[in-house]
């Protein structure tokens, strides 16, 4: 385990007895109380050390990193459970063996043995990082890319007494980075690209369309009467419905298109390459048909419709923000004109007093559950 020193305050009687022995004085019967005090103090010190060792072992076995310690001779003195797993050595097998045998590191490119970080930490008396592309050769001969660092261990007087090596599976770090990047660019509920990723792809699609002289279309979709379903049957069913909608949307699209969940019950579709405006309206009509089929979720059969707004590059806008705004405006024009349909953006729509309404007031009162779901 990690090297260290525990201190406790010893009784003065113990100190006097020790001094007497050093001076050649043989303790007499009168010294017995001091002997008892000395023995009691030693037991207290031993108990304190045992408690410290037990606490340290539990703590080090609970962390996610591998921990391995060596003494000044490069001999392994401790391994936690993660270190056992990554190296393939059990602690009982590794204790007392040279670090180079238990912790065999090679360069990932040249496969040459590298300088062990524990030895460098001792010699340089400072924390050192692992070399790039550092690979651990495990006990069974398999190889594992690892990363992290080593640091010297000091006693109370500041003298180096060994080193501690802390390491972990580098592939786990890469996997975590990839997961974080994915979550930053995708909707947690549906797995669809997020608004940030859509904006990036839309800007790229406009650039390519400008260069190759083709069209880009944005379709802004809103589920009609989703809120009454969500409020009546619960958010869990509403989430399942959104996931089912997302699945159908993806099935309708080409690989080069992007389906994004804009938020709530709104979705945006980027058609990256189309030749004529009619291509976008054909996609909208297909979506109305496919998403209009019944959904069977949590013991209910649900029917929903869509309001879709369409804007085109370069006919309606020549930048991503304006294109998005115009598609949104066209979608609300569809809602105003009866829902369950699609409209292409026109300049006249910007002059109409359309107020965005998330809750669709009055709709919940006019619709009864039997109008949009059937139990089975």
TrEMBL record:
Question: Which intervals of the chain are annotated as region Disordered?
Answer: 19-39
User: Transferase among the record's keywords?
Assistant: yes
A single GO molecular-function term is: diguanylate cyclase activity
The residues covered by the PAC domain are 130-182
Q: Which SMART domains match?
A: GGDEF (SM00267), PAC (SM00086), PAS (SM00091)
Which EC class is the enzyme in? transferase
Any Pfam family hit: PAS
**Where does the GGDEF domain lie?**
214-347
| Alphabetical UniProt keywords | Nucleotidyltransferase, Transferase
The EC number(s) attached to this protein equal 2.7.7.65
Annotated PROSITE patterns: GGDEF (PS50887), PAC (PS50113), PAS (PS50112)
User: What InterPro entries does the database record attribute to this sequence?
Assistant: DGC-Regulatory_Protein, GGDEF_dom, Nucleotide_cyclase, PAC, PAS, PAS-assoc_C, PAS-like_dom_sf, PAS_fold
Give every PAS domain span.
52-125
Give the matching PANTHER family: DIGUANYLATE CYCLASE DGCT-RELATED (PTHR46663), SLL0267 PROTEIN (PTHR46663:SF3)
Against NCBIfam families, the record matches this protein to: GGDEF, sensory_box
Q: What is this protein called?
A: Diguanylate cyclase
């Amino acid at each position: 385990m990690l090297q260290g020193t525990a201190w406790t305050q010893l009784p003065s009687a113990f100190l006097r007895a020790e001094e007497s022995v050093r001076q050649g004085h043989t303790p007499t019967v009168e010294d017995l109380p001091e002997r008892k005090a000395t023995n009691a103090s030693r037991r207290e010190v031993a108990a304190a050390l045992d408690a410290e060792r037990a606490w340290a072992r539990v703590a080090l076995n609970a962390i996610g990193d591998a921990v391995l310690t060596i003494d000044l001779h490069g001999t392994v003195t401790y391994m936690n459970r993660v270190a056992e797993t990554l190296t393939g050595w059990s602690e009982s097998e590794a204790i007392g063996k040279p670090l180079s045998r238990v912790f065999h590191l090679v360069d990932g490119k040249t496969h040459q043995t590298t300088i062990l970080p524990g030895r460098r930490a001792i010699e340089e008396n400072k924390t050192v990082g692992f070399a790039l592309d550092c690979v651990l050769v495990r006990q069974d001969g398999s190889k594992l890319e690892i990363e992290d660092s080593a640091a010297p261990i000091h006693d109370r007087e500041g003298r180096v007494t060994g080193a501690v090596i802390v390491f972990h599976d580098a592939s786990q770090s890469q996997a975590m980075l990839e997961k974080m990047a994915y979550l930053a660019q995708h909707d947690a509920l549906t797995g669809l690209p997020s608004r940030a990723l859509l904006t990036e792809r839309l800007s790229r699609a406009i650039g390519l369309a400008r260069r190759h002289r083709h069209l880009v279309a944005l379709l802004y979709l809103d589920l009609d009467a989703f809120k009454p379903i969500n409020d009546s049957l619960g958010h869990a069913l509403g989430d399942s419905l959104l996931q089912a909608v997302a699945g159908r949307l993806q099935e309708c699209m080409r690989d080069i298109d992007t389906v994004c969940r804009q938020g709530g019950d709104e979705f945006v579709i980027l058609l990256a390459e189309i030749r004529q405006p009619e291509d976008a309206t054909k996609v909208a009509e297909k979506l109305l048909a496919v998403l209009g089929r019944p959904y069977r979720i949590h013991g209910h059969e649900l029917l929903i419709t869509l309001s879709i707004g369409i804007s085109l590059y370069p006919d309606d806008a020549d930048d991503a923000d304006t294109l998005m705004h115009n598609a949104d405006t066209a979608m609300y024009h569809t809602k105003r004109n009866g829902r369950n349909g699609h409209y292409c953006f026109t300049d006249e729509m910007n002059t109409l007093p359309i107020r965005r309404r998330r809750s669709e007031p009055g709709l919940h009162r006019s619709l009864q559950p039997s109008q949009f779901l059937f139990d089975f």
